[in-house]
Write a structure and sequence with these properties.
Elements: E1 8-9, H1 11-21, H2 33-41, E2 44-45, H3 55-64, H4 69-77, E3 79-80, E4 88-89, E5 91-95, E6 99-103, H5 111-118, H6 131-142, H7 147-150, H8 164-175, E7 178-184, E8 187-192, H9 193-196, H10 208-223, E9 225-227, H11 228-234, H12 239-245, E10 252-256, E11 263-265, E12 281-282, H13 293-300, E13 322-326, E14 329-339, E15 342-350, H14 356-369, E16 374-377, H15 386-397
Parallel strand pairs: 1-10, 15-16
Antiparallel strand pairs: 2-6, 3-4, 5-6, 7-8, 9-11, 10-11, 12-13, 13-14, 14-15
Helix pairs in contact: 2-4, 6-8, 10-11, 10-12, 11-12, 14-15
Length: 398
């Protein structure tokens, strides 16, 4: 039985709506798999850090369970042919919340960003004469290619010291003339957009307003409910861009008790109360559930910060501390590592004794997913919980 959409939500209702919208409450749609999840989330962030796995692999694992890592990569980057038409990718990489994997059908809606990049008056890297045309010509003749295939990504060993070829192909990527259709050994594989994007999508004739309206609606659907700042952050839009289209986006204004700011919700999220089984899992620090710090603190009362780029002496929770989700709440953190076939929890932070079973379950399941046969805990922030955690781990692996 459905309930009539409401305009006032309790903080708890908003939290559950957000969890369902992100795929953590209720039975996951396994039939649509990773590709369906990508369409549901709208964007999956990429990052160079790999601890248990890369972040874009951790996203489907957190929601769907032990999806094979090769299956994940194939789902993102695999191609599909339609009759006599050439094979096309299911996804592409572009700048959304950050560098993200995006559903291929959303290509037209990033036209506003491609236009903005073309209009930029300056860049951090100088583009050598003739290099842009040479890259396009080489891709047309030989593509798809990596920057190394094109002639080299760097001038020196410094990560920022791009070669002229790399500058040119990245510029072409931002402009939309070139597309990243795959990550191969973490290198971008580039191809011409005219070859990689289906003809029905390969157009930039949508206005900025049309693009923004679509992305605001998608953000609202993926969040379930959010403030203007939440919605803007999802695809890194400006506040004024959200303001200009939100009234026509299809989202509905709501009041959430305790939020203190106006909010908008996906009307479909208000049709029925969120029910179902909660997922217990480790979350990537780059998971869209916890992308925005202020939102995470507002919804979960949980301060989340990636400390990989914080000097080691100043870290509080660890290099790649992964929040632990259980029962619809964030109940702790685990800073993981791998040593051979052992998953090592270098540091575990628990939100009290009740969090112990959930953290143990999350650790054991994650270890199994990455083919580790054991779990070792090095440090527990609350020493009195070390022994209970050890017992739960023994029970879960016994």
């Amino acid at each position: 039985m459905t309930t009539r959409p409401t305009t006032t939500l309790s903080a708890d209702e908003a939290r559950r709506i957000a969890l369902r919208a992100q795929g953590f409450l209720g039975a996951p749609d396994r039939r649509s798999g990773v590709r369906g999840l990508l369409r549901h989330l709208g964007a999956v962030q990429l990052d160079t850090i790999s601890v248990l796995a890369r972040s874009h692999e951790l996203i489907p694992y957190a929601r769907l369970g032990a999806v094979g890592r090769k299956t994940v990569e194939s789902a993102y980057w695999g191609t599909a042919a339609s009759g006599a038409a050439p094979a096309r990718p299911h996804a592409f990489e572009y700048w959304s919340h950050a560098a993200c994997i995006l559903p291929i059908e959303e290509w037209p809606h990033f036209a506003f960003r491609r236009r903005a990049y073309r209009a930029r008056p300056h860049w951090n890297h100088t583009l050598p004469d003739g290099s842009y045309d040479q890259v396009i010509k080489q891709l047309r003749t030989e593509g798809p290619l990596t920057a190394t295939d094109l002639g080299g990504a760097k001038k020196t060993s410094e990560w920022w010291d791009w070669s002229g070829t790399k500058v040119a192909v990245e510029r072409a990527l931002m402009y939309g003339e070139v597309v990243c259709v795959e990550r191969r050994g973490w290198k971008r594989v580039y191809d011409l957009a005219e070859r990689a994007i289906p003809d029905t999508l390969l157009h930039d004739d949508l206005t900025d307003t049309e693009c923004l309206r679509r992305l605001v609606r998608l953000a609202g659907q993926s969040l379930g409910v959010g403030t203007r700042a939440d919605i803007a952050d999802y695809h890194r839009l400006k506040a004024e861009q959200v303001d200009a289209v939100i009234a026509d986006s299809g989202l509905v204004p709501v009041t959430v008790e305790g939020w203190g700011k106006p909010a908008w919700a996906d009307p479909a999220a208000l049709e029925a109360p969120p029910r179902g089984r909660h997922r217990t899992t480790l979350l990537s620090p780059f998971d869209s559930l916890v992308w925005e710090r202020a939102r995470t603190e507002r919804i979960f009362g949980f301060t989340h910060r990636l400390e990989a780029y914080v000097p080691k002496p100043k870290r509080v929770y660890g290099y790649f501390a992964m929040p632990v989700l259980a029962g619809g709440h964030l109940v702790g953190r685990v800073d993981p590592a791998r040593e051979g076939s052992t998953l090592v929890a270098r540091q575990v932070t628990l939100d009290g004794p009740k969090a112990v079973p959930a953290v143990a379950q999350a650790l054991v399941e994650a270890a199994s997913w990455v083919n580790c046969t054991g779990v070792r805990v090095e440090r527990v922030d609350a020493p009195e919980l070390r022994e209970p955690l050890a017992r739960e781990l023994a029970r879960a692996t016994g």
